[in-house]
């Protein structure tokens, strides 16, 4: 067997292993960061006066409404991530939440994204933002309620073939 064939064979094996690991990785990201979001949101709800005061200090408009909104978003969003239910949909407001957290509370870290990346990575919103982006871009993975629902819908409502659709239009 030549070096090229051996390399191709090994590369294909590596891809199979990595593809197999996608599902557990996405499950881990969802469950771990969903739990972190839930804890953060629940902590804010336990003493809502602290986030309200913090939002007021930062000059965030409607601090009472926004403190409640963010707390509920993180709490409910964390649960949805853990379950893998509406994962990509809930990731959108979570990404926005973390972007606003960078802009409002960690502006210095955000400004240093290129000059001092370590400062950017060390800011609290970074890992939450990164996890939300992973779920938004790659989905919840096969071990999720989203995947279970999608399989159920595909079985109950198979998509018509392209030729059937074309023949019905003519």
Quick summary of this structure?
The chain is mainly alpha-helical and 170 residues long. It has nine helices and no strands.
Number of helices: 9
Overall average residue pLDDT? 92
Shape verdict: flat
Strand-pairing-aware structural class: mainly alpha
State the end-to-end distance.
55 Å
Give the helices and strands as they follow along the chain.
HHHHHHHHH
Estimated share of beta-strand residues: under 5%
User: What's the gyration radius in Å?
Assistant: 22 Å
Number of separate structural domains: 1
What do these coordinates show?
- The chain has one domain.
- The chain contains nine helices and no strands.
- α2 crosses α3 and α3 packs across α4.
- The longest helix is centred in the first third of the chain and has 44 residues.
SSE topology sketch:
Blueprint: H1 3-46, H2 49-58, H3 63-83, H4 87-105, H5 107-111, H6 117-122, H7 125-138, H8 145-156, H9 162-169
Helix pairs in contact: 1-3, 1-7, 2-3, 3-4, 4-7
Q: Which terms would index this structure?
A:
single chain, 170 residues, mainly alpha, 9 helices, flat
């Amino acid at each position: 067997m030549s070096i090229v064939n051996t390399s191709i064979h090994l590369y294909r094996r590596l891809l199979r292993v990595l593809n197999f690991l996608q599902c557990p990785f996405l499950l881990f990201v969802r469950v771990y960061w969903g739990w972190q979001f839930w804890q953060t949101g629940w902590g804010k709800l336990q003493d809502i006066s602290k986030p309200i005061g913090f939002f007021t200090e930062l000059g965030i408009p409607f601090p009472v409404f926004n403190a409640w909104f963010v707390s509920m978003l993180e709490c409910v969003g964390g649960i949805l991530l853990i379950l893998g239910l509406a994962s990509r949909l809930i990731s959108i407001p979570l990404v926005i939440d973390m972007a606003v957290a960078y802009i409002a509370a960690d502006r210095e870290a955000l400004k240093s994204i290129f000059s001092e990346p370590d400062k950017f990575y060390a800011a609290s919103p970074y890992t939450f933002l990164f996890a939300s982006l992973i779920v938004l871009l790659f989905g919840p993975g096969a071990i999720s309620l989203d995947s279970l629902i999608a399989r159920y819908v595909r079985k109950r409502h198979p998509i018509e073939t392209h030729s059937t659709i074309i023949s019905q239009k003519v």
